[in-house]
Amino acid sequence: MKSKFVAIAAALLTSACSTVGVRSGTEEPAFTEVERVGAVEIRTYGERIAAQTIVTGSSEAARNRGFQRLAGYIFGGNTARTSIAMTAPVVQAGEGRSQSIAMTAPVAQGAVGQDRWTIQFFMPSEYTMASLPVPRDPAVVLAVVPAETYAVLRFSGLASARDVAEKEAELDAALTGSGWTSAGEPVVWFYDPPWTLPPLRRNEVAVRVTRQGR
Fold first, then answer.
1. Integer Cα distance of 37 and 62 in angstroms
2. Residue 78: how many CB atoms within 10 A of its CB?
3. Predicted structure pTM score
4. The pLDDT of residue 173
5. Which of 5, 70, 125, 174 has the greatest number of C-beta atoms within 10 Å?
6. If you average pLDDT over every residue of the chain, what do you get?
7. Dist. CA 20–CA 24, nearest whole Å
8. In which region does residue 213 sit, left (phi positive, over 0), alpha (psi from -120 to 50) or beta (all else)?
């Protein structure tokens, strides 16, 4: 009887979490935390695969368009017409900020003079480049993301452009004198669907780092 009650309670909790947008059971890329610098985590990630697209416009508008385009791929917009499980986080990198990764197809260029963003969905770990279906939309490409080390700062809220800029500055300040050096431009990771209550959202700013002296 007790185990049955626990199972029912767990089901109700999962349902409630889904209603307010809290992620439940969503796969995330595996990482190892190697150090903490105040509120900043230093994490190492292994190689993983992402579906990605380039979009133009303001950060929020570009994120929404990129999300819709990539969602089309994982919800059947592929040569196998099959669905692929959603993972977290969704990655947003500004022009010149995307990681150096091998792509399987050329990427369409955005309009000159506009903000350009790379939006990524990580693929579930069960897939390989050989087993993933090919995107039907030529603006969506599959990419191998190499193993890297990141400094990561977590925050909640709506993650407006101003919020992100403030957190990027906070992350940069935390790394000063820490023994870690930025090795690229910051990216933003979004873990929750847009209907999630802002105080419950998990957002992170991250930057690739190397240990000083190496």
1. 32
2. 21
3. 0.78
4. 96
5. 70
6. 81
7. 11
8. left
Token reading at 155 = 């925050």
Q: How is the chain split into domains, by residue range?
A: 2-44+147-211, 47-145
CB–CB of 203/154 below 8 Å?
yes
User: Residues 95-111: pLDDT tens digits?
Assistant: 544 333 233 322 222 22
pLDDT one-digit tens code per residue, 5-62: 333 333 333 333 444 444 557 899 999 999 999 999 999 999 999 999 999 888 888 8
Share of the chain above pLDDT 90, in %: 64
User: CA 36, CA 33: separation in Å to the nearest integer?
Assistant: 8
Residue 94: what residue type? Answer: G
Q: What share of the chain is helix, strand, coil (3-state, %, to 5)?
A: 25, 35, 40
Q: Which of 46, 48, 116, 61 is nearest to 87 (CA)?
A: 48
CATH code of the domain made up of 47-145:
3.20.80.10
CA dist list (Å): 202 to 36, 64, 189: 18, 17, 9
